Amino acid sequence: MTTGNHSSITEFILLGLSADPHIQALLFVLFLMIYLLTLLGNLLIILVIHTDSNLHTPMYFFLSHLSFQDLFYSSVTVPKMLENLLSQRKVISVEGCMAQVFFVFATTGIEACLLSVMAYDRYAAICHPLLYRQVMRKQLCVRLVWGSWVVAFLDALINILLALDLDFCEVQTIHHYSCELPSLFPLSCSDVSTNAAMLLSSALLHAIGTCLLIFFSYTRIVSTILSISSTTGRSKAFSTCSSHLTAVILFYGSAILRYLMPTSGSSLELILSIQYSVITPLVNPLIYSLKNKEVKAALRRTILKYLQCLR
């Protein structure tokens, strides 16, 4: 078998979502609109939280960082996807591919960690309301956010350092619209068992670690809500969690399946990747704004204030 390495293989071909030029044009318009709406929605959430003093609480502090992370997340893959939808040669350099693998892995990990931190915040607010301010101090909130970024980047760094040692065969075609670590394994002539084991361990640690924290947090939350005698009180307590729970289901449902399923280049893989890397960053601002009265009120105040400034 003819083998190569990073010095002989200089680029990969990304097959993308379709080979039909007409469909590609439609997909370009669709994903461009999605990307612009993602940028607008998340920037608006960050702006509103930072300018409205009513939202200067731990819950919205974490939400602003989730919105920043979603900006980062979508910008890792969507611009390159848009470029390839308009290009005849849908290629990415090996270095660019490895960089994309690293940031896709890191941003996925950050999202998982932040969602678990937000679940703990809701647990503290609902189960220990009198101690909430004391427990969720600003210093702790900052450390939890920084911890999420550090853990995710270290995990991504370990996996990418192992991937850099892979030798690649002459086949350079990636059956995907972006570079993700599982998609590189079929292209390698090297033994990928160590890489696959590390990827599986990372995925399970992220999934089990963060999911357990979310599960135990919501177990206590549900128990506390059910113990509230007032129907209005139960409804109000649950409404503070519904947005976060929706975001958790959307993200974890697709991300865990994508990283645990075998790589085959199937349509299901593409759909799952689009779900957690493109759709989730788009809908998170909508979920938190449409289902949250405080955010909606702050949005109205912010828009009115800027309209008055323009007069």
From TrEMBL:
The lineage of its organism: Eukaryota, Metazoa, Chordata, Craniata, Vertebrata. Residues 41-288 form the G-protein coupled receptors family 1 profile domain. Pfam families: 7tm_4. The chain crosses the membrane at residues 25-48, 98-120, 140-164, 196-216, 237-261, 273-290. It is a multi-pass membrane protein. Its main location: membrane. Belongs to the G-protein coupled receptor 1 family. Keywords: Cell membrane, G-protein coupled receptor, Membrane, Olfaction, Receptor, Sensory transduction, Transducer, Transmembrane, Transmembrane helix. It is found in: Cell membrane; Membrane. GO terms for molecular function: G protein-coupled receptor activity; olfactory receptor activity. Putative odorant or sperm cell receptor. This is Olfactory receptor. The keyword Membrane applies. GO terms for cellular component: plasma membrane.
